[in-house]
Amino acid sequence: MMTVFVVCFFVGLALTLLIAFFGVDSLELHGDAGGAHGHGHGHGGPSMFNTSSLLAGLTVFGGVGYVLNKVGMTSGLLILLVAIAAGLGMAWLFFLLYAKVIYKHDDSMKASDFELSGQLGKLTVPIVGDGMGEMVYVLQGTKRSISVRSENGESMAKGTKVVILNMSKGVATVTEFNEY
């Protein structure tokens, strides 16, 4: 039993140090088809099974189990139960730290931040018939441009205000924006 505690402690500690020095893309393990991926915040909140929480729990489980063995506690079952409780408690504390402090201030890019349907802009290169033009628009405070084509193949002059209907293969389909 002592070997299990020592291995858990050193594996948890070693992985924690590796992640601290070399970084990891904040693995969150949950049941989507995507498996483990970084910054998976699209599911409504941080995962309780994030890397930091799991490693903290593993390290504390191993450390507490080892210390209890060394101080002379004789009941193997009691040592195991206390070590499990300590590991789960520390994992929960790290999850709370992650959810309340780190995740709350994480401004990672989300796909929804870059949804272009409904985006307003102005043509900088006219659209001639079924051809393509270019529009400029502002997204998150930055002026950007994108290739566009008209919805029904009609021509549109430079300077026309347009709205993006959808995206296909990096080209936006637009229609003229009429202010009422």
From TrEMBL:
Query: InterPro entries recorded for this chain?
Result: NA-bd_OB-fold, NfeD2_TM
- Has the keyword Zinc been applied to this entry? no
Give the highest taxon in the source lineage. Answer: Bacteria
Q: Pfam families, alphabetically?
A: NfeD_TM
Keyword tags = Membrane, Transmembrane, Transmembrane helix
Give the transmembrane region(s).
50-69, 76-99
Q: Which residues form the Membrane protein NfeD2 N-terminal transmembrane domain?
A: 2-104
Protein known as = Membrane protein NfeD2 N-terminal transmembrane domain-containing protein
Protein source organism? Paenibacillus roseopurpureus
